[in-house]
Amino acid sequence: MTTTTEATRLAGAVGVAHTRVEGLDKVTGAARYAAEHHFTELAHGWMVLSTVARGRITAIDSAPVEAMPGVLAVLHHENAPHLAEASGFFGPDPTVQVLQNDRVPHVGWPVALVVAETPEQAREAAESLVVHYEQEPHDTVFRAGHPDTYTPGDDEDDSVEISKGDMEAELAASAVVVDEWYTTPEEHHNAMEPHGAIARWEDGRLEVIDTTQGAFATAQDLAALLSLDPSSVRVVSEHVGGGFGSKGLVRPHSVLAAMAATVVHRPVRVVMTRRQVFSLVGHRPATAQRMRLGAHADGRLRALDHQASSYTSRVMEYVESSAAISRVLYGADAHHTVNRVVPLDVPTPRWMRAPGEAPGSFAVESAMDELAERCGVDPVALRIRNEPAVGPVSGLPFSSRSTVACFEEGARRFGWAERDPRPAVRREGRWLLGTGVAAATYTAGVVPSTASVTAEAGGDFTVRITAADIGTGARTALVQIAADALEVPVDRIRMRIADSDFGQAMLAGGSTGTRSWAHAIVAAVAELRAVLVPGMEIPADGITVRGNSLDAVRGLAKLERHSFGAQFAEAAVDIATGEVRVRRMLGMFAAGRVVNPLTARSQLVGGMVWGLSMALHEEAHRDAASGGLVGGDLAGYHIAANADVPLIEADWVDEVDPHDPTGIKGLGEIGIVGAAAAVANAVWHATGVRHRQLPIRPDRVL
Ligand code: MOS
């Protein structure tokens, strides 16, 4: 190793396209997801979920099921191991307090686990289990102004209400006012790999192979729930087939697998069906958002009021922070944002790709488009005119903010200048054509993490960090980061991830994974440099040091840290059927240094596809009478298919975050942010009709 020089940095691996280091394993089938591992004596658990929306269990007829072929155990609230009401890694999580009492809080709540020799026997037995309920009246219907709505008062800063200035006075004095409601429906994520885990006891330790975005947090939570010493629980998640937030925390399948392994003294596998995923892993709640914008005649904002509400469950409070995005995007003399919730008898909503920003951007970026229309100002120019110099609410400087560069470069590539601002004037046969634009932003966070690095006798380096690669290419990005930190070629790095025994690290979430892990790897490499002496003999088992980014992260100045972007879309609307076809999308982003352009582009394009899907297709229907989902599966829940997805281009402007050792900001979530608004704004431009309710279904267009 030599001292880092600018030349070696520029010649390094970060910033260069690199195929996935585990790509060959994935395409040859050598890479295994959690539930694909095999153990002798492996038993299979099948969950039984409640069919009523509210009430209590009066009896479970387990005896006939226990006598069925292959059945090893039927766990339910009367015989299941006790779970501590533990404060987990992210606080107490009542959604995993399963089989602890007779209460049923929603349709799809786990009421039993049947364990059998084969999955088929477990399923047959689970479907034969008769559970008796005493039903109570339920309420599963979300609407704006529901009487049980309240403003949450916890200390999470994006859930509280923030006010600045005299809202009513500024609105009254405004030359132009937009005052509209925007709604988004209940939406679901359903990863390619359904949630599954295998739990087993091995030499006095609970070993769990799980599909999780955070093996360390999952291990901590399982230990707390089962009243075990944290050192006696190990969770690994080497390959994860998608997460999107749904695998951010310990979920019921892992808890049930651990309970069952304890009871039957065998390894136990529990895998959710697609339909079970729709109840048990969180989802995006429906939102209703009132936007009030007041502006000078030239479009400069005087007033911005973003009042969001969404539902939570009665199990725990989850706040979809839709209004938080308005605290970052635009300043105004009077500024008010609030996220309210209403508890319903429904499964608990949770993190789903860009929680808060995804639905919030639909409201604020649709309203900005309406403001542009009413002021007669170009939508791109309106946004540039309203660029804040500092955090609109915090007053803190931005670590960097390249929104204008994104809009200008995006507009140039998209051909925005040729756009006729008038709506409903471009026609091509039976299609009306329009273009739309929206801003994007997402928090660029960093969380203290640890890593170890070993200088091997043969000259290679092994890095160990409890990172997770949920399909994003994180493992490959970390190889590139480690190679540059160590100033060696990428093929000298062995990257070991996703094992809680490697120590505390941020989970793959909140667009903060790669950046947080990079901090820890850079810290570990610095420790190694302090230990290694040029020419020294490396012992056979190598030299291992640990690094911790805690001090580096704590020492970071307080700034507004976000990635930014500009989304452009062109839509065609069939005048006969109301069908909307998106013809092209372009996203220009500013997300700090991009570690691996290949996988970064995939991540951004994936988010944009999701935004298209959110704009046109996605909505879950909950039946008021039963409280259950209608079509809670991949047949009934519509998502964009390949035929719906046009040419999508994602790119970025040059930006290096000066406050990050690798220059990274993060780009996990920002691809979806603003994308639905850009499509909706394009539909308005095509037709002259505003769609403030998602999705923009053909029947709503006509
Ligand atoms: Mo993201 S919702 O933190 O996976």
UniProtKB/TrEMBL annotation:
GO terms for molecular function: iron ion binding; oxidoreductase activity. The keyword Hydrolase does not apply. Keywords: Molybdenum, Oxidoreductase. Coiled coil: none annotated. The keyword Thylakoid does not apply. Residues 28-137 form the Aldehyde oxidase/xanthine dehydrogenase a/b hammerhead domain. PANTHER family: ALDEHYDE OXIDASE 1-RELATED (PTHR11908:SF132), XANTHINE DEHYDROGENASE (PTHR11908). This is Xanthine dehydrogenase family protein molybdopterin-binding subunit. It comes from Streptomyces montanisoli. The lineage of its organism: Bacteria, Bacillati, Actinomycetota, Actinomycetes, Kitasatosporales.
